[in-house]
Amino acid sequence: MSTQTKTTFVTLKTPAALPGVETALQGLGQWTRRLHGSAGEVSGLELAPNAPPVSRETLLAIEGVADVLRAPSPHPKVDGQAGHTVALGRAALGEGVLLMAGPCSVETESQIHAAAAMVARAGARLLRGGAFKPRTSPYAFSGHGTPALRWLREAADANGLGVVTEVLSEGDVESVAEVADLLQIGSRNMQNFALLRAIGRSGKPALLKRGMAASVEDWLLAGEHLLSAGASAVIFCERGIHGFDPSTRNLLDLGAVALLKHAFHQPVVVDPSHATGRRDLIGPLSRAAVAAGADGLLIEAHPDPAHARSDGPQALDEAALTGVARDVGVGK
Ligand code: PEP
Ligand code: MN
Fold it and tell me: Is residue 163 scored above 80 in pLDDT?
């Protein structure tokens, strides 16, 4: 299986073969661009990388095609994880819809224990919660740091859950890797290459959130940084990109989810919470995410959303989380 974001060219036996070859390629769903020789003649066609995969044999079988040339993929290790499930401690991604849920931030020991019990009852397999929080304002609550990691692990263990939590800086990789089954890279750090490489060196699986203004290709290349540094797997997490319209905070790019899953066969999950910032839209967007091909969901949930210290307005309570989980067939 291939992600086919690499460039493919076909050369022509004779210029006269051009119309027939173009028609055949269009029939295969390929967008093409004509390549011209020094005398202005058409010498070949470049296939756009954002088209459905087509094998070399299929291209060579087209009447009038002389040869097929492919540039090597810029992210061979990402391509190599196509179609694989991802082991995450007690859970796995790629076998039914995997729910990862919990509060935005780990606030107190009792809060995270209540959250863990609640998300486990709803069918989650991993507990989320930030010990290190990236906040837009320097005056906002930024997490309790290292002590919160221990609370998170103990709460997860008490409820048979795995742990996913964000790593904010290179210096914290070791302590987070000791407790977490899945290391989260926040949207704001998707292209912090030193951090990606440090996380990769831990040998753990990574949850790579898409940068708010990152192209899919940049996202895949960030995944390549992680895998080439030693990460055991990269799960891509779509969490909304910057659009022009503030009505839904961010623009949840479900086209990218379908592309990553159905064309590239990558492990992919959706975070509908940060995508919209509205708890009333989490249900519909979760269902849409799963329909588009998401292997799992990362959802913010809190035992007492009204008193959450961060992202309360988007947090689900137990009843709402249970409803969403049931609607997307979690645990089936
Ligand atoms: C989070 O999941 O806690 C978070 C900060 O999300 P993002 O990096 O997508 O903004
Ligand atoms: Mn949050």
Answer: yes
Confidence at residue 296, expressed as pLDDT on a 0 to 100 scale: 98
Closest-CA residue to 45 (of 81, 77, 7): 7
Q: What is the pLDDT of residue 65?
A: 97
- What separation in angstroms does the CA of 15 have from each of 23, 28, 35, 44? 14, 21, 11, 8
Cβ pair 234, 223 in contact under 8 A: yes
Percent of the chain with pLDDT over 90: 91
pLDDT digits (tens, 9 = 90+) for 168-197: 999 999 999 999 999 999 999 999 999 999
Q: Cα 262 from chain centroid?
A: 13
CATH match for 8-72 among 3.30.70, 1.20.58, 2.40.160, 1.10.287:
3.30.70
Q: Which residues line ligand 1 (CB under 6 A)?
A: 104, 130, 134, 166, 186-188, 209, 239, 271, 274
Q: Amino acid letter at 192? A: N
CATH class of 77-327: alpha beta
Domain residue spans of the chain: 8-72, 77-327
C-alpha span between 121 and 203 (Å, rounded) = 30
Q: What residue's CA is closest to ligand 1, atom 3?
A: 104
Confidence at residue 52, expressed as pLDDT on a 0 to 100 scale? 86
